[in-house]
Amino acid sequence: xxxxxxxxxxxxxxxxxxxxxxxxxxxxxxxxxxxxxxxxxxxxxxxxxxxxxxxxxxxxxxxxxxxxxxxxxxxxxxxxxxxxxxxxxxxxxxxxxxxxxxxxxxxxxxxxxxxxxxxxxxxxxxxxxxxxxxxxxxxxxxxxxxxxxxxxxxxxxxxxxxxxxxxxxxxxxxxxxxxxxxxxxxxxxxxxxxxxxxxxxxxxxxxxxxxxxxxxxxxxxxxxxxxxxxxxxxxxxxxxxxxxxxxxxxxxxxxxxxxxxxx
Amino acid sequence: xxxxxxxxxxxxxxxxxxxxxxxxxxxxxxxxxxxxxxxxxxxxxxxxxxxxxxxxxxxxxxxxxxxxxxxxxxxxxxxxxxxxxxxxxxxxxxxxxxxxxxxxxxxxxxxxxxxxxxxxxxxxxxxxxxxxxxxxxxxxxxxxxxxxxxxxxxxxxxxxxxxxxxxxxxxxxxxxxxxxxxxxxxxxxxxxxxxxxxxxxxxxxxxxxxxxxxxxxxxxxxxxxxxxxxxxxxxxxxxxxxxxxxxxxxxxxxxxxxxxxxxxxxxxxxxxxxxxxxxxxxxxxxxxxxxxxxxxxxxxxxxxxxxxxxxxxxxxxxxxxxxxxxxxxxxxxxxxxxxxxxxxxxxxxxxxxxxxxxxxxxxxxxxxxxxxxxxxxxxxxxxxxxxxxxxxxxxxxxxxxxxxxxxxxxxxxxxxxxxxxxxxxxxxxxxxxxxxxxxxxxxxxxxxxxxxxxxxxxxxxxxxx
Amino acid sequence: xxxxxxxxxxxxxxxxxxxxxxxxxxxxxxxxxxxxxxxxxxxxxxxxxxxxxxxxxxxxxxxxxxxxxxxxxxxxxxxxxxxxxxxxxxxxxxxxxxxxxxxxxxxxxxxxxxxxxxxxxxxxxxxxxxxxxxxxxxxxxxxxxxxxxxxxxxxxxxxxxxxxxxxxxxxxxxxxxxxxxxxxxxxxxxxxxxxxxxxxxxxxxxxxxxxxxxxxxxxxxxxxxxxxxxxxxxxxxxxxxxxxxxxxxxxxxxxxxxxxxxxxxxxxxxxxxxxxxxxxxxxxxxxxxxxxxxxxxxxxxxxxxxxxxxxxxxxxxxxxxxxxxxxxxxxxxxxxxxxxxxxxxxxxxxxxxxxxxxxxxxxxxxxxxxxxxxxxxx
Lengths: 263, 465, 378
Prior knowledge:
The complex is a heterotrimer of chains A (263), B (465) and C (378).
Chain A: E1 3-9, E2 13-20, E3 23-31, H1 36-51, E4 60-64, E5 76-78, H2 80-91, E6 97-101, E7 106-111, E8 117-123, H3 131-141, H4 145-153, H5 166-178, H6 183-201, E9 211-214, H7 221-231, H8 244-262
Parallel strand pairs in A: 1-4, 4-5, 6-9
Antiparallel strand pairs in A: 1-2, 2-3, 6-7, 7-8
Helix pairs in contact in A: 2-8, 3-5, 3-6, 4-6, 4-7, 6-7
Chain B: H1 3-8, H2 13-29, H3 34-47, H4 53-71, E1 78-82, H5 88-96, E2 101-104, H6 106-117, H7 122-130, H8 141-152, E3 160-162, H9 170-182, H10 206-227, H11 233-256, H12 266-278, H13 281-304, E4 315-319, H14 325-333, E5 337-341, H15 358-369, H16 376-389, E6 394-400, H17 406-421, E7 425-430, H18 440-464
Parallel strand pairs in B: 1-2, 1-3, 4-5, 4-6, 6-7
Helix pairs in contact in B: 2-4, 4-6, 4-12, 4-13, 5-11, 6-8, 7-8, 10-15, 11-13, 12-13, 14-18, 16-17
Chain C: H1 16-21, E1 26-29, H2 37-42, E2 46-49, H3 56-61, H4 72-83, E3 94-99, H5 102-114, E4 119-123, H6 130-151, H7 157-179, H8 190-202, H9 205-220, E5 231-238, H10 245-252, E6 256-264, H11 279-289, H12 301-314, E7 319-325, H13 329-344, E8 349-354, H14 361-377
Parallel strand pairs in C: 1-2, 1-3, 3-4, 5-6, 5-7, 7-8
Helix pairs in contact in C: 4-5, 6-11, 7-9, 10-14
């Protein structure tokens, strides 16, 4: 039985998925503090522990994400755009567009019926369409990221945040708060702002029936709803949206192993 | 002094001895010290194919031109700075006019030497930012190198500037700034934008040919008056032929790049094919030799079946690339064979119109040869046709952020090429000379993903056959 | 807070819908000073200035059609069209774009590639040379031919002369109103004058002259309060219809914009078009040879700066606000150069850059307020 692992080192969190024979054996998610190399080792150990395995049991490891080169024990690295697409397609083969909002960047990826990436657009120049935007706002409002989704869904009158820049939007939110705007309306407005940036960025790629939302921010139900409204499209979120990158990496590890075996 | 570095740049032993005082003086002005040369030597060994003498000689052309440029005033020359993209024939004419007159496109020389080889572009860019080309406004880093180098005093204040008006508004304006601040006269050879209903390439607007011809003639007249050296039609014709000879020497190279496996890396290809584009004195005098030498060496590689990438690597057309060798080496790592760039001549579009003057002939040639100089529609038609002709597996459209016209046509070009040729297209944003915001680390994910898309698409096309 | 009574600048716009239903052709044009609208009127068509700006929504929508390193006015136009936010943009039979620089070319290319409106572009030479004038004349002759084909109506020289005369009449009144701002206490604010010009762009030309005369007579009667406000010359590349943020902030800060000079969005009214000459030659002379060149011209600084300094002198200006749109590089560079020239003539200058972003307002306000305060303190 071939055991493989996919490790996704993002800017905020490290994720590991252990797979065997196209089944997910275990996975783990860990916040990265300072040491990226350590985080990679730790998240992998955690996942291995859950599976009752050790590093030597792994036949192939693929690393992805911004910090993929810090995974010393990886056999191969792969772009996170490819990995997320691959991971999502495995879970939901009807996917045709993947929206991935990470801590420091965001992507919209087009996938064909075979799960192959055919086009993509990536924003890594501006914090406004990324998880960072939400982090900054959560801090300003004195709440946690997890609270944002449920709170925003109760809003009936979302605020309008016009600033396209995270730094200026922060100031805008502070002044709106001072004016007495309700927390849920503020958060709903923040979600609308990030959603519209994503929809505009991805308009060349297109959103249709098979749009899937992954990445850490996908756990925020408020952002999902805002995306659906802005893009006029139904969006699906996988049960564990944070691990789709690592899952895709594990799938690629399997393919590599199979190819090596057939040679 | 610096024998290893100069040898890698194709200097012969006698040359190293002979040029020592000039190298010393030039490096002093450029603030290039021993550690800088050590770093540059390592960079050259890492990024350029120095086992090829043709590559060494090509590197030498750039380094020698840098030295010539920095010392031109001290060596008693009258100096003309042309700009990029140049009206090549005009630059060739000014370069060959007289041994007293030194003509060069500073930003291109600085781009290859100070940026790619020495990685000392930042302080030059910062100087430009203080003197009129502020940061954050997407000014062209080429023009920032031009202004910054003059502001820093590392290249002399010229006696004449000839901006590039062919597809740029920024270049003439920066030269106007040089005029206002440094008192340098400007000779504009203006160009009309907008097709007015007559399309490229079969229906080139005669009005635009006439306008450009008149402007070239007038600009050459201004040059002539200023330096007391009239450039006659026949002299201009000779310069045109010199430029054509240099350009033709590169044609052999493009033929060799069709070989499988790819015989030369993109870093080397880019550096070498920029030589005819630079059209400088060294390029005109030594360029053809270097290119011919390189072609001989590559022909041997092709004959022996030797290449720099694996056989069957996906073929990519890159309409311009960033000048950063560390980004270009990512293409090699990813196994993407860039065999076509925008320096490749389009399928020859011979004119059927006969003209009375060489000015009109040259104007027609310029408008016909590069779609980008004609209109947005022409640009994307030419890009698509080149991609089709060379049967490439993918296209990279590099978007130098300081270059305004690319904003007008890139999105349409991507859509058209994808639709008509069913191959993936990446719009790759970056900067020619500024590595502060755009660098290898930042580019990696996009390039890796694009490589994957190209390989998958290629495999599926093969499968469909 | 207005200290001068707001003028009634409500000059009714032409009912485009009805006009169109009557079979009249609607011709859009980019108002960069190089399209003689007389040609459009002379074939019985109605011109519509493609001049809206100041909104971030259409700008954001343009991201799929144009790269972001062009000025926001030029990018936004395709955004307005795609979002269907501007009714007049939906009614065009033709769009004429005189191509001056790469930004304006962006309008021509984006509409050409991504809308189904036919775009007719022609090149504008960037230098006021003799052969430049000849080429410009050729260009407007091409426009004339295209318009004739569109409408099936010949543009006769007689009709053209009539339209030129009407333009001259309208310009004369606008000039008269503008010059009233030379007074120590101008009877009309800068904002109202700009709104007047913008409204005139869309008015029914047949009633415009009368409407302007009425307006002029109204404000002549006014006795504005005797307040000493800092007098400002506002200049830059484009003052779009709806882009009033900067002028509002100036007036809120207690300044009085007494004169403005923009290359796009504010048509010229200073001189009359020669009616003795052949009409096409007269149009070419007026719109190309005798107009102040934009910064996108080769070697424009001497003439533009001289003109701006003359305006500053004539209108006894206390300071200059240079209003640039983001990425319009030729204006950025000229702004850098003019700053020196203005200071040498004892005129403080403030440079403001906009990307049509609502979030900039705060920062621009601070800078304008500081600038006006320092002028008041002198």
